[in-house]
Predict the structure.
Amino acid sequence: MGIKMKKLSVMVSVAIISLLSVSPIHAADKPTTVAGCKEPTAKVHAPAAVKEPMTIGKALPKTMTIETNCGVIAISLLPNKAPLTITKLSALAKAKYFDGTFCHRLTTSGISVLQCGDPSASGSGGPKGWKGYKDENLPTNAADYYPEGTVAMANSGPGTNGSQFFLVFAPSTFLPNYTIWGKITKGLDLLKKIGEVGAYKINPSDNKPYYASDGYPIQTVEIKKITVK
């Protein structure tokens, strides 16, 4: 999961460059964008304060639509298996917490996931004032914990769920510690293309981006809007 020290000799997206305050790199040797993706307009910002629902909602949504600068990702929710998680995420979506944010992490080796839901794009941001909530619907099938199309919560340990989640775009098996709350029904092909373009990290010794198996998506992914129904 560390930096692969192969220099990213490509023009990295202007949006990411401004996000990380590094100089752009010229000369392309492989694609850095996905066809159809538009220039993002979002800006990194501190997570907003959203009133946290403390009890499970009575009428939970069944679908989530994520509108990105690259296209739509549709998710079939699992309210019967992860009702608390769906309640929390629905409250955030209805408060527009996710709107105008970046998916900040892409992993392409060992596991294949795109991680989103942190307005600060730091990997440590969550709803202001929330303490974390319990895990639900943890997988039990050791042969295939997180199959392609799974949507699950990201966390830093038991009971630390907040707003961050990941979208699985190829079969991935890792520790069964992450609440599964949905299934991708549209946009899986888009996620695969984003994965093919790859990820990068900034090498602190020269402050330049290098290809990595785990880092920021080279193709910037901006969540324009999330709706639940």
